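Retry 2 of 3 after timeout on previous attempt. Resubmitting structure tokens to design endpoint.
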């Protein structure tokens, strides 16, 4: 990829706008579908509150972003950029990015192998045994070291995706020296994704594949759309297989697998964020006027508070309810304005930072931004994962100036 083309491409990308688009597609559109299907009723007080909260949040997000842009424009000073990158320096920075990816890949591989040898392999080995479906489902959650679990999640959600994207990008664009570490990282990443039969990590790597293909391909829109259809089909099929396996069901045929396809593709991917928020947050009358203020949030475990696991008596309050539901149950209606504005500011600042980066070297950062956005919508905000992702994104795009543009 040419340096100038890379700069031009990155300057057209706005993660601030990405968030708005995803919000409209994943939340507002499904909300309308559920209303039209009469699954939720706007005449119900909880549903009306849900709708008002969702709209107030996104309006606050957009308003804060525009406000920051207006302030920045007012105080903007003329800055002269060179007509292009200083090629030698950019290649040097890409070499640094390649070495960082190598280190992260080996660290991730070590953590995943450590999880396996510390007993993580047992769930897969017990697949097909006489254990009841739910008992098998929760193996590896509350019976595993929190440290090992955290290292596994960091590895398979951050370290390995970063390493794979950098290695794949540099291999595709013939950047840097020949490196065979990709041959190690790929199978280890797959092992990390399937170790406890969660659908999330499996979907993550499927999404990584389609993300890389779509964003680096020079094919036309029609061919890219066909790639997307194949991806959706793979998500439905592979997601169905994993769903059956995670409940210890190994004796299934194509008919049973086909019965899981529509629930995976439409119910889980399209409707679940709104449905979970409606059922487990906005329908809970105890939360009205009495938000939790992070009382049961798993963030507290980082500072010594009790970890609220799946078997905990208050596990109901850590049920994944998505971004909107999580903000509501923890901060009530004021949270829509406050958190919405904070998110708008953060994503606007992040957009500005990434536009000053070499696209080829920061491809993994864009991917992590997308993962963060989807993590927020399908899981929630006040858990360890989103904050770890946000921290990594800002570190990789800002600190040490590893991926900055060169000035004249």
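Retry 2 succeeded. Sequence:
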């Amino acid at each position: 990829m040419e340096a100038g083309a890379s700069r031009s491409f990155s300057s057209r990308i706005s993660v601030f706008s990405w968030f708005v688009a995803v919000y409209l597609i994943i939340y507002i559109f499904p909300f309308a579908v559920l209303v039209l299907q009469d699954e939720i009723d706007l005449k119900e007080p909880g549903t009306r509150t849900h709708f008002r909260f969702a709209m107030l949040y996104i309006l606050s997000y957009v308003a804060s972003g525009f406000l920051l842009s207006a302030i920045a424009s007012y105080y903007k000073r003329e800055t002269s950029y060179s007509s292009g990158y200083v090629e030698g320096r950019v290649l040097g920075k890409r070499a640094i990015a390649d070495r960082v990816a190598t280190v992260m890949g080996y660290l991730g591989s070590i953590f995943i192998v450590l999880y396996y040898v510390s007993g993580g392999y047992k769930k897969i080995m017990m697949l097909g045994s006489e254990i009841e479906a739910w008992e098998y489902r929760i193996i590896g959650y509350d019976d595993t070291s929190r440290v090992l679990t955290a290292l596994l999640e960091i590895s398979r959600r951050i370290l390995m995706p970063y390493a794979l994207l950098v290695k794949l990008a540099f291999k595709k664009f013939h950047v840097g020296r020949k490196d065979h570490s990709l041959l190690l990282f790929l199978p280890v990443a797959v092992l990390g994704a399937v170790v406890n039969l969660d659908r999330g990590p499996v979907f993550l790597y499927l999404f990584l594949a389609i993300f890389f293909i779509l964003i680096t391909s020079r094919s036309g829109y029609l061919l890219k759309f066909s790639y997307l259809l194949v991806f959706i089909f793979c998500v439905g099929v592979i997601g169905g297989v994993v769903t059956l396996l995670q409940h210890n069901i190994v004796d299934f045929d194509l008919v049973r697998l086909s019965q899981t396809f529509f629930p995976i593709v439409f119910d889980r991917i399209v409707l679940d964020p709104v449905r979970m928020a409606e059922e487990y947050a906005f329908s809970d009358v105890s939360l009205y006027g009495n938000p939790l203020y992070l009382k049961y949030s798993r963030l507290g475990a980082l500072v010594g508070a009790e970890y609220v696991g799946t078997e905990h008596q208050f596990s109901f309050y850590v049920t994944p309810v998505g971004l909107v539901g999580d903000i509501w149950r923890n901060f009530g209606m004021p949270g829509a304005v406050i958190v919405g504005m904070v998110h708008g500011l953060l994503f606007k600042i992040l957009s500005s930072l990434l536009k000053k980066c070499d696209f080829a070297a920061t491809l993994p950062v864009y991917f992590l931004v997308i993962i963060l956005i989807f993590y927020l919508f399908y899981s929630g905000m006040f858990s360890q994962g989103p904050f770890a992702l946000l921290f990594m994104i800002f570190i990789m795009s800002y600190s040490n100036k590893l991926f900055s543009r060169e000035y004249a």
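Attempt log closed. The CA atoms of residues 80 and 408 lie 7 Å apart.
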